[in-house]
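hiii, so i know i said id send this last week but things got crazy w the move. better late than never?? heres the sequnce for the chain we talked about at the cafe, plus the structure i predicted for it. fair warning i was half asleep when i ran it
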Amino acid sequence: MSPGIALVNSDVELDERWLEVLWAGAGSSTCQFATGKILQTGTQDILDGSFDLLCRGGTAWRAGAGSAASASFDSFRAIQFCSATAAIFRSDLFSRVGLFEESFESYLEDVDLGLRCAAAGLQGGYFPDAVCWHRGSATFGRWDTRVVRLISRNQVFLIARHYPGQLILHWLWPIVVAQALWGVLAVRHGCTIAYLRGKVEGLCRFAAQRSASTQAANLEPILTESELQIRRLQSQIGFDAYWKVYFRLYGVSK
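okay and structure toks below
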């Protein structure tokens, strides 16, 4: 494998073999980036997440978050989206697709990078034997208003930067459903104003983000497959309320 860069959040504790396992796995494949099984701090079998997935509505899911580390997450997978919580990247990847987008500040900048990789035909790998523990939002807190504002805004940025206009129109209903449902979660956690501020900021900067767009002709099949994976995994581990309502309102991906 060519030289690589490991990124690890400050609230992550690595298993002593994490880097060895991940580097060996990625080095024996064509993966441009790699991540492993991320558990919640203080547990041995509850996932904080693994790889990321993105639905057609523009909201991301850290696959398996909050569920038991079942057999669904015990095998290698080729992945398109890699959480930067704890991961390694080939150094030359950034010269090919660019660095993390600074305008995102925090949250979903790794999904933005994954979309650029997808546009370039580059994939990563999920290696479950590389284990670490993540406290999660240790700096601000999971539902801090700053976190909600940034995520709400950056969801809009993702659509602005990557969705061709025709696809926005074609997927307008799932976009509305996904974004509104995330707003319901924000309201339930007392973050209504932060959610609305994020959406307004995202829409106000929509044109500027679009000017830096990397809209990919192959985005439709990429996100269609990603959404299918969300549905398959949710079926295996049990649907949470968000995805149950999303698929009920939008229907089954085809």
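btw DSSP finds ten helices and nine strands in the chain. thought thatd interest u
miss u guys!!
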